[in-house]
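PROTEIN DESIGN WORKSHEET
SECTION A - STRUCTURE
LENGTH: 84
TOKENS:
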């Protein structure tokens, strides 16, 4: 798990079938003091996070595949919570 800020969203006309119907967000991981930590990541979202929201993202590939219901999904990151 890692704290991140949503910095945008992505659209794709051609994508893996497991990604159909999922919102794709661009999440910038943050360090503990709120500074950017590495490159932004593409994450699927089912919670309704929006631009500027701070979220918890998880890179558990097995958990993501279970969430998407597709055992061969290439998706690695998903939004698991929105910070109040």
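SECTION B - SEQUENCE
RESIDUE ASSIGNMENT:
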């Amino acid at each position: 798990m890692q704290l991140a800020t949503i910095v945008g969203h992505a659209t794709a006309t051609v994508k893996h079938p497991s990604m159909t119907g999922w919102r794709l967000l661009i999440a910038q991981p943050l360090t503990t003091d709120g500074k950017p930590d590495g490159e932004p990541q593409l994450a699927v979202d089912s919670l309704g996070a929006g631009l500027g929201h701070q979220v918890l993202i998880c890179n558990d590939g097995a958990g993501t595949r279970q969430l998407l219901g597709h055992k061969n999904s290439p998706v690695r990151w998903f939004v698991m919570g929105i910070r109040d």
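SECTION C - NOTES
The mean pLDDT is 92.
The CA atoms of residues 10 and 24 lie 5 Å apart.
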